[in-house]
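Dear V.,

Thank you for sending over the compound details. I've combined the ligand you provided, glyceraldehyde-3-phosphate, with the protein sequence from our construct and run the structure prediction for the complex. I'm sharing the raw inputs here so there's no ambiguity about protonation or stereochemistry in the SMILES, which I know was a concern on your side last time.
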Amino acid sequence: MTLMLASVLSPAEADAAVERGADIIDCKDPSRGALGALPLAEVSRIVEAVRGRRPVSAVVELPHDVTHARDAIEAAADAGAAFVKFALPLTPDAEEIIAELAPVAARRRLVAVLFADLGPDFGVLDRLAEAGFEGAMLDTAHKGKGRLLDAMSVGVLAEFVGRCRALKLTAGLAGSLESPDVPRLLVMAPDVLGFRGALCAEGERRNALSASAVSLIRDLIPRGAPSAAEPGDHAGEVDHVFVRDLVMPMEIGAYGFERGHTQRVRFSVEVEVFRTSGPDDMRMVFSYDVVMDAIKIILASGHIELVETIAERLAESILLHERARAVTVEVEKLDVVPPASVGVRIRRARPASVAAFAAGSSVSSL
Ligand SMILES: O=C[C@H](O)COP(=O)(O)O
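Below is the predicted structure of the protein with glyceraldehyde-3-phosphate bound, written out as structure tokens.
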């Protein structure tokens, strides 16, 4: 399950974010850049306003001297922050700093933030896991200069989440995320998606939190596993969302001669999507970006022997989306016997109980 983190700067904003369903309340001063810390007294006030209803995280601007860094982290935790977030230094001694913070990580839940637009080295994730960190989060350093998906491809983001999962680190994604990004990033099943700008009036992170914007993002992130429910007023209506004839180069094939180079593969995908009731925004749609991202993530994972494997993985990934009722996937190799194509077509559907839930779901009104 993916949790929604909302960055707030005041007790009033924290209360509004809790009321609108954010899962983690993150104390941050957006006027101080990507990872600006709030004064500790303000963190304490936010913790008080939250009244234990949600975990609170706090940003710390890490002093370079390790003793001071440890003290700053301890102070934020003493102010009531369940998680302490800070930007991982980009200096050559970053790994040493991580190791020196290991004693603090044994007592406090530390989250290291890596800036996607500054070319982070994912090798550091091993060091964070060894030092006992709680998790790692990708964010963007330069706000206003692009979203997370501008800084990193979906394949690289999926690699980040996968490496965190393998190391038992909580994986967070943030960085000027907008509502259409949410279903795309959910495909990677991160533990946390973090937001500030998208929750604010006019999408500007230094503006005040907007209740309707918080609700929009909240509604885009499913809250737990779907279960059976009564069908809603649009039950039975199904749209067909498709990506047709998308040709991508990929490493594929079971023969030795098919290794070490790419061949053209054509993808045609049709998703049967439950129609839902609600406002006329991203909550109403199943984005074809979800299909294209799922294809790119599979391609980025390296050589795959069988078209059947690709088709199954693609269908499985798309059916994770709660609006998808069934999917037909066609995968064709174009370079085996040109101009003919060879390949496979499969149709996969969700289990009936889950399908009933999705048919009956509607989003909250604003
Ligand atoms: O931790 C999450 C950040 O506060 C994200 O801020 P942003 O959405 O404005 O980039």
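A first observation: Confidence is low (pLDDT under 50) at residues 226-233, 353-366.

Warm regards,
I. M.
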